[in-house]
Fold this protein.
Amino acid sequence: MVRGAFVLAVLAAAGCDSGGDGGGEVVIDAGAMADAAGGAGGGGGGGDIAERYCEGIGNAKCEYVFRCVQGGNRSVVFGLDGPELSDCVDTEKTRCLADVQDRATRGTLRALTDEEISTCQTRMAALDCPPGTPSDWVTMFYQFYAQRCTSVGLGNVPEGQACERRTDCQNRDLLCIDGTCKAARPADIQQDCVAEGRVEGRLNADASCPGEVCAQVRANDDDKQGICTADCTEGFGCPSGAYCLQTSGATGVPSWYCTWPCAQDRDCTNGFECIPVDPEDAEGAKHCGAANPPE
């Protein structure tokens, strides 16, 4: 089920940071998410500091979620492993190292510093558990974590320069398109792709897509299975003009992926249509996707 709004969670002082009402979701241009994305530092990060970085941010994330979230919600809402804290940290560290060590070897990793790693851990440890259910504030958490932790390990490749992966690029609103860090056009994340299953919004890794992700679309009569997009779960933003859309379903982990807003079908490309974000709210926000089959 789609949540029914284009959202990027912005952690305001009254939100997660100070134990406020747990709100803070506002409609904004996802291009603004590229705050602090800059800094083409050195090729940076030898093996030791890469280990410290990945273990540090893994600990920061897992310790916070295990402190504030109970049982199955750690997996269903946040997608984290368990049942023990150490299981979560090991998984997050391994996933981080696969990316960071690859980029460090190729020289596309912004220089890591122990000071920034320590700041990430300190700020996460000081973060209060917000009121409300985890699903109410999970997006805010990921935005806060992105700003304090994953932003430390950004890429160092400027726009127009060669890349192999999206995370090589120094700005989070760039994609690695045809081997170059570029700002995406609508068509770049409206290409057809193959997605497994039929759960709308479920993400599949797909190297053929400019954003490296294929999102499943709803059942339709146009034989469309998936739409190329980019994952914006942990603070890797969306191309300027696109929005980060959160979806959730009865089972599985919520998805956050980039989508293009529209007012009518001609605003979309490649046969995708302008459809409501929430199928039950025909007058609400719309984005480019696959229409439901006609009744």
Remarks:
- The chain is about 25% helix and 15% strand.
